[in-house]
Design a protein that fits this description.
about 40% helix; alpha/beta
Length: about 1200
């Protein structure tokens, strides 16, 4: 048109006069576009702003474009679609589609059409003269599989049926978006009838090939209900159809017909929103020849009258997960007055008659209590920094006055010792509020100790690094717990402020009765308290409950200060931590130091990758329009997406002829930072002002990108959602590209927790720099209402302790806090869950709020939990009331391991378990269940597994336990696993040492020697990243497998052999540079060289059945100045490691372990080993000294024992020596 319009204007309705004034006829083209846009706007296919000339797509427009439907057809649908359409009217509407406007009724066809009208099931109201009647009849004839006589009718039918499925699907999508339940069901049935060429009233067996037509008709004539077929055996089906041979085939087809079992768990979140957890269990045989690779189902929630659809989503049942249970979680609105029930319907997208309906009754639904109002922000004079007196130097470099929130809480925090809860949006300066309480403690209790708990490791590290820098000025020593109990106890003694995660403080405070350091905590600061409703919530809740309990038992009081975002039910949290009414500060979520504008945009595309693709351009425009030249952060679901989005932004900027629009520095200025970046794509986009961050990047790369963004050189930063908590940079604009991530454990896309979204939004906060912040949330359209509600209104938090109670109760039984069932019930009354039970009873499966309901519920919870622990042999219940810990429970509590793991270890480990079995058992630990399996990662794992020396039997590569096994084997083989999986590998290894120490304890309780020694070697393999058969020299820096082989050939087998060589010979053999040799020498000198001497006490007087004591003297060979044992040299291990040793007495011939002791060896030690003497005779035992960190330094000695006859029978139990 652009080419042909200027030469021949009259053909296109323009005159020569127009051309003379406008040679290119631009105005004419603008008029054409304006007319088209106005028409599309009228049909609601786009939104057209006449002033600016901007186009915006609508949902209807997307549907029409996807199904290739003209605007004229959509206009017809808009006019005639009503929620009450019957089958007759629906087929008439279909016939009115403009796609069929060219069809005419020929004279010779009328006779046949009349005959067809009488044969089709749905009556046709129009006469045969009208083309719509012809379309209607031919569609029905196609479904009914009627034979046609005329060729012209046959060609018209082909034309109609080619468009039928597409148009009917389009109508279905429109109706679904409008939420008309009855019509959506009717249209979907027509879609399937067109696909299958059969009517809904016919038997579903018609959808299978291979059943003769006469048998199908016989079944239809029987009028036998379809559901009853499931109860019949093959021979009964054969008798029913009077054709015994077909019984087996039909029985098979019946059980291949898609059928699902549903169960729903409903939890009220607020008085207007319910969370529904729907469990879907496939109850049919998935056959890829029949069902393909996946079966799609529509999940619909309908109101009580089944008129309105309250929620809809597409659920894909994939072939590889056809055996598994699936769960979907979504939120639905409820209205006043409360309806009696809702209906959840799951309907197959392809199979007629495949539908399951589950009524969800609200008869016993108790809605949560109304929430109290928020704290009002008072209009106070801003408080000057000088109010802190001598501590004002901490802040006066940065600002002169505190912000309004800090001003309002100052008096309570700094001038009193009251417990306090401060709820305010992210970025409100709550950390400074916590510092007020710390400074108060330092001023009034100089020897006091503060414990700061951050629910996430990244938060703890950020706070530790900052406080170590700032609070040093006022004389505070800040330490962070490591998770190694011995080290942590030393840190606790010397620190003023201890930074910890809930898990590490739980580990340390479990034995509070023996640990003075835990009892003497005078201030507990809990950050991000709202995460008590998240994944770390149960541990956080137990830790705070324990600190309150300790405070009530001891004379010294522990002050608790909690910080959180704005909460709906802050009063419950505050009362639980012991706040009085003037210690509660819960500001509304719109009270921010920097006001935040939120824009929410919905995308109605169910397929997540396609939705992310559609979001990339709006994200680019969000940065361009809202941020201009100010910094922006874009959050994305995955590392791959971070890279793709960064490249897309650069592509769009280049298309606008401004490739460097996001770069605000010269190439020379950023060059030193780019040197630290090894990732090619990152270096390329960073040169244009765009950066991205994900867990796979190295620490130096992350620091370089953050520094560039903070300085303003890089305007845009693309970050994975999981890094939002540890991110220190902030910006003017935050864009959230989608709110779902792929959950490998569930094999589906899962929503971000609301707390994560609030944290991301809080990054758009730069006090003293911006007047306001901006947030653009791009999400799936059905979620738009939910986010609109909870991003403007505070979110209530609930406890999840009831699902994670076992391990905590086991620990309390071990420490004797709980000695009977009544103690267990009393223990629960200290928790936040106890406070919430009466406030939102249905959330916790409670049917009433009376005292009786409450006590019954708690008793049942205690009975169930203790019953499970008893079954797992972690504790014993005596006389139905008293509880006592057992060995397995003590091991689980000591090593901070889940009770299911210790039960698995106890039942799986055998006297004959070898390395392969040990590795499989450890990888199966419940601790690895949360290991993420990302999208399409199973293919990479399968590839890695093919190179693993130990084959995994019946491996499922989407299983986190299989992943843990493969990552451990790759670690031993020193095989690269890619950046993302390297961070997973680090997490696996961190947990492995604890699990292996527990394994040793479980094995030694059974008295087996070989598997215990194998587990100790496995511990060495984990720390050093090598196989047990590899040369010990591989532990040294700069050593490769080739060099180790060369040394072995020269007779140098171990590290001691290398140390004994002459310098010249060593240099010649290794062929290293002087600096490399210095590194090797450093590690060799730190390598443990232990002298061991032992003797049996009163060796001549050893008598059967009595105790034998072996005294072992250990001496480390070390330089005179080395008073301290250095940390283990383990560059492949993710964290610093202290050396640990086991002393074992065993009988290798009978695979018996007699005695074991775990020690941490400094320069020298004297250790007593006790065991019971066997029957009289001569014995040759072995004494082993095993290291848990280094390979090649283990020692074994012959221990001869002659046992005399006992004077009298002593029945002494064989007492296993537990680890100390």
């Amino acid at each position: 048109l652009c080419v042909r319009l200027p030469p021949t204007p009259p053909l296109y309705g323009a005159s020569e006069v127009e051309r003379s004034g406008d040679p290119l006829l631009e105005q004419r083209r603008i008029d054409l576009i304006h007319t088209a846009a106005t028409t599309l706007d009228k049909c609601a296919l786009i939104k057209y702003e006449r002033k600016s000339g901007q186009f915006q797509p609508t949902d209807l427009g997307r549907v029409a474009a996807y199904y290739y439907v003209s605007h004229a057809t959509v206009a017809v649908y808009n006019e005639f679609l009503k929620p009450t359409l019957s089958d007759i009217e629906l087929l008439r509407l279909f016939s009115l589609s403009k796609d069929f406007s060219s069809l005419t009724v020929r004279e010779e066809e009328k006779q046949e059409l009349l005959r067809l009208i009488e044969r089709v099931p749905v009556p046709v109201k129009e006469t045969t003269d009208e083309p719509t009647a012809k379309t209607n009849v031919l569609l029905q004839a196609y479904i009914s599989q009627l034979k046609l006589d005329g060729f012209s009718l046959l060609s018209d039918m082909t034309y109609i049926t080619q468009s039928a499925a597409r148009l009917m699907r389009c109508i279905h999508e429109i109706v679904l978006k409008r939420g008309w339940a009855a019509l959506a069901e009717r249209v979907l049935n027509f879609c399937k009838m067109i696909d299958r060429r059969m009517w809904l009233s016919q038997t579903p067996l018609r959808q299978f090939k291979g059943i003769p037509e006469d048998i199908i008709k016989k079944i239809e004539r029987k009028d036998f209900p379809w559901e009853r077929f499931y109860d019949l055996q093959p021979q009964e089906i054969g008798e029913l159809i009077r054709f015994p041979k077909m019984g087996k085939a039909i029985h098979r087809f019946v059980h291949q017909f898609p059928r699902l079992e549903l169960s729903a768990h409903v939890q009220p979140i607020t008085r207007t929103v319910l969370r529904v957890e729907l469990s879907i269990t496939p109850d049919f045989q998935f056959e890829s020849k029949i069902h393909g690779s996946a079966e799609p189902f529509f999940v619909l929630v309908e109101d009580v009258d089944q008129e309105h659809i309250l929620h809809s989503e597409l659920f894909l049942l994939k072939h590889k997960f056809a055996e598994d249970d699936h769960s979907l979680t979504f939120t639905i609105p409820i209205f006043d007055p409360l309806p009696p029930q809702y209906f959840i319907r799951v309907v197959s997208d392809r199979w007629l008659g495949a539908e399951t309906t589950l009524p969800v009754s609200f008869r016993h639904l108790i809605l949560p209590e109304k929430y109290p109002p928020h704290t009002e922000l008072l209009d106070l004079q801003p408080l000057p920094v000088s109010a802190l007196g001598s501590y004002s130097s901490l802040y006066d470099k940065n600002f002169s006055h505190f912000n309004p929130i800090q001003t309002q809480v100052f008096s309570t925090l700094f001038n009193s010792d009251d417990n306090a809860l401060i709820g305010a949006p992210t970025g409100s300066g709550k950390t400074i509020c916590a510092e007020f309480a710390i400074l108060r403690m330092m001023q009034h209790t100089p020897k006091g100790r503060c414990v700061y708990i951050a629910p996430l490791q990244s938060l703890a590290e950020e706070r530790f690094n900052e406080w170590r820098r700032t609070l040093r000025e006022v004389g505070a020593t800040v330490e962070m717990l490591t998770g190694e109990t011995a080290t942590d106890l030393k840190l606790l003694e010397k620190a003023t402020i201890v930074v910890s995660t809930p898990q590490r403080w739980d580990m340390l405070s479990r034995r509070w009765k023996q640990r003075k350091g835990v009892q003497n905590v005078s201030l507990l600061v809990v950050d991000e308290m709202h995460l008590i409703g998240g994944e770390v919530g149960p541990v956080l809740e137990v830790v705070i409950s324990r600190m309150r309990y300790i405070s009530s038992q001891m004379e010294s009081r522990c002050r608790i200060v909690a910080l959180s975002t704005s909460l709906a039910n802050a009063k419950d949290l505050a009362e639980w931590i012991g706040c009085s009414s003037h210690g509660i500060f819960n500001f509304h979520s719109n009270v921010r130091p920097v006001p935040l504008e939120i824009h929410i945009q919905g995308f109605d595309i169910a397929h997540v990758p396609s939705r992310l693709l559609a979001m990339s351009k709006p994200a680019y425009y969000a940065v361009v329009n809202h941020a201009a030249d100010r910094p922006g952060i874009i959050f994305v679901p995955s590392a791959k997406q971070a890279q793709l989005t960064a490249v897309d932004l650069l592509t769009y900027a280049t298309a606008d002829d401004k490739p460097k629009r996001f770069l605000h520095a010269s190439a020379e200025d950023i060059a030193p930072f780019l040197k630290n970046i090894n990732e090619g794509t990152l270096a390329h986009v960073a040169a244009y002002g765009i950066g991205f961050l994900h867990e796979g990047l190295g620490a130096s790369e992350q620091q370089a990108i953050c520094a560039l963004h903070a300085s303003g050189a890089l305007q845009v930063l693309v970050v994975t959602h999981s890094m939002c908590w540890g991110l220190v940079v902030s910006s003017h604009l935050v864009v959230l590209m989608d709110t779902q991530f792929y959950d490998g454990a569930e094999h589906r896309y899962t929503d971000y927790p609301i707390t994560d979204i609030l944290q991301m939004m809080g990054r758009a906060c730069r006090p003293l720099v911006d007047d306001n912040g901006k947030c653009v949330l791009l999400c799936h359209a059905p979620k738009k209402l939910f986010y609109r509600k909870f991003l403007y209104e505070p979110f209530p938090v609930e406890s999840h302790l009831d699902h994670f109670l076992h391990d905590h109760m086991c620990a309390e039984v071990v420490t004797k806090t709980i000695e009977n069932k009544q103690d267990a019930v009393d223990y629960l009354t200290w928790t936040f869950m106890y406070r919430r039970l009466t406030q939102n009873p249905n959330y916790y499966n409670l049917q009433g709020t009376s005292h009786r309901h409450l006590s019954d519920h708690l008793s049942e919870l205690v009975e169930t939990t203790l019953g499970d622990l008893e079954q797992a042999r972690c504790l014993a219940v005596e006389d139905g009331m008293e509880v006592a810990p057992l060995n397995l429970g003590m091991i689980a509590s000591y090593y901070y391991i889940q009770y299911t793991t210790i039960e698995l270890f106890s039942s799986s480990l055998q006297a004959t378990t070898k390395l392969k079995g040990l590795l499989e058992i450890v990888a199966s630990a419940a601790e690895y269940e949360t290991l993420p399996v990302r999208h399409r990662e199973d293919d990479i794992l399968q590839q890695l597994a093919s190179h693993c020396p130990l084959q995994i039997e019946e491996a499922r590569f989407n299983d986190p336990h299989t992943k843990a096994n493969i990552l451990l084997q790759c670690h031993f083989s020193r095989r690269e696993v890619g950046r993302e999986m390297a961070s997973d590998q680090a997490a696996v290894l961190e947990k492995a040492t604890r699990l292996l120490q527990a394994t040793v304890d479980v094995i030694s309780s059974s008295g087996w020697l070989a598997p215990a020694l194998a587990t100790m070697e496995l511990s060495q393999m984990c720390v050093q990243g090598m196989w047990d058969r590899d040369s010990a020299l591989m532990q040294l820096p700069n050593f490769t497998r080739e060099l180790a082989k060369k040394c072995s050939a020269a007779g140098v087998e171990g590290i001691f052999d290398l140390m004994d060589m002459e310098d010249d010979a060593r240099q010649e053999l290794l062929g290293m540079t002087p600096s490399q040799l210095v590194d090797v020498a450093k590690v060799c000198n730190a390598y443990p060289n232990i002298d061991l001497n032992f003797e049996v006490e009163d060796a001549d007087e050893v008598v059967a059945g009595e105790s034998v004591t072996v005294i072992v003297q250990l001496q480390r060979e070390a330089d005179g100045e080395t008073a301290r044992v250095p940390k283990v040299h383990a560059p492949r291990f993710p964290k610093e490691k202290e050396e640990g040793w086991w002393l074992v007495v065993g009988d290798a011939k009978s695979n018996a372990l007699l005695c074991i002791k775990r020690i941490t060896l400094q320069l020298k030690a004297r250790v007593k080993l006790d065991f019971v003497a066997p029957e009289a005779g001569e014995y040759q035992y072995t004494l082993y000294l095993m290291c848990d960190s280094y390979g090649g330094c283990d020692q074994e000695y012959e221990l001869k024992l002659s046992v005399g006859e006992a004077d009298e029978d002593d029945d002494e139990d064989d007492g296993d020596d537990e680890d100390d």
